């Protein structure tokens, strides 16, 4: 499940990165590292996870507090862009998924968790309290990067099907995933 959460979040992050790269002035984008499940039949613990060594201690960018609230830990560019990524995923999935805890080194992010509004939404099971979704919609404060991507101010969503936040924008620019 840990691999599924991190690798699914990574796929969302790739789509987010494509949209962010197409937005003038957005700059660098966080990358969620892949997490691999390794089978070691000769070992007394046959399964392990493996990911890239970051070469330095991880810094927390976003964390879930004990009361279920989500907090950004700082105001650095990477923290603000992680918050924008959270907003984007929440909007992309119409309030069904939120990437919560994130830590890393520089632009490389790991140890992500998610909250989902529906049990098993897209095969994902929440790894933190689902009430975080409601609190996020009520407490998220858009930053400069949310504005660059044209993300809408959040209101508690009624879960529906997924679509790109950019599809609702009124601009000449179309979503990068539709361009070839």
Would you summarize the structure shown here?
Residues 171-180 have a biased composition (Polar residues). The chain contains 4 helices and 9 strands; from the N terminus they run αβββββαββββαα. The protein is of the alpha+beta class and 180 residues long.
Task: Give me the secondary-structure topology.
Elements: H1 2-22, E1 31-32, E2 36-39, E3 47-50, E4 59-64, E5 70-72, H2 77-92, E6 97-99, E7 102-105, E8 108-110, E9 114-116, H3 131-139, H4 144-148
Parallel strand pairs: 1-8
Antiparallel strand pairs: 2-3, 4-5, 4-7, 6-9, 7-8
Description:
This is Alpha-protein kinase 3. The protein is an alpha+beta fold. It has a single domain (1-149), classed as Protein kinase-like fold (Alpha-Beta Barrel), CATH 3.20.200.10. Helix content is 28%, strand content 18%. The chain contains four helices and nine strands; from the N terminus they run αβββββαββββαα. The protein has helices at residues 2-22, 77-92, 131-139, 144-148, and strands at 31-32, 36-39, 47-50, 59-64, 70-72, 97-99, 102-105, 108-110, 114-116. Strands 1-8-7-4-5 form a five-stranded mixed β-sheet. β4 and β5 form a beta hairpin.
Key words describing this protein structure:
single chain, 180 residues, alpha+beta, Protein kinase-like fold, five-stranded mixed beta sheet, two-stranded antiparallel ribbon, 4 helices, 9 strands, 28% helix, globular, disordered C terminus
Mean pLDDT: 83
Specify the CATH class: Alpha Beta
Question: What order do the SSEs take from the amino end to the carboxyl end, as H and E?
Answer: HEEEEEHEEEEHH
Q: What would you give as the CATH superfamily?
A: MHCK/EF2 kinase
What Rg do the Cα atoms give?
Answer: 16 Å
CATH fold naming: Protein kinase-like fold
Query: Strands across the major sheet, in which order?
Result: 1-8-7-4-5
Q: What structural class do helix, strand and pairing data support?
A: alpha+beta
Please bin the fraction of helical residues.
25-40%
Major sheet size, sense and barrel closure? 5 strands, mixed
Count the E strands: 9
Strand content: 15-25%
Annotated CATH architecture: Alpha-Beta Barrel
Which segments are poorly predicted (pLDDT under 50) over 5 or more consecutive residues?
167-180
Distance between the termini: 33 Å
Characterize the overall form.
Answer: globular
How many distinct helices?
A: 4
Total tally of structural domains: 1
């Amino acid at each position: 499940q840990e691999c599924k959460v991190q690798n699914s979040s990574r796929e969302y992050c790739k789509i987010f990165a494509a949209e962010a790269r197409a937005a003038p002035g957005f700059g660098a984008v966080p990358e969620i590292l892949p997490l691999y499940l390794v089978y070691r039949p000769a070992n007394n613990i046959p399964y392990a996870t493996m990911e890239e060594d970051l070469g330095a201690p991880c810094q927390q960018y976003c964390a879930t507090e004990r009361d279920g609230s989500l907090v950004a830990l700082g105001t650095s560019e990477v923290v603000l862009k992680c918050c924008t990524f959270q907003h984007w995923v929440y909007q992309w999935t119409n309030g069904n998924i939120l990437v919560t805890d994130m830590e890393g080194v520089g632009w490389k992010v790991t140890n992500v968790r998610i909250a989902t509004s529906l049990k098993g939404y897209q095969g994902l099971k929440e790894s933190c309290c689902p009430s975080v979704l409601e609190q996020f919609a009520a407490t998220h404060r858009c930053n400069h990067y949310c504005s660059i991507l044209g993300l809408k101010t959040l209101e508690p969503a009624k879960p529906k099907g997924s679509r790109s936040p950019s599809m609702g924008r009124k601009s000449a620019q179309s979503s990068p995933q539709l361009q070839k």
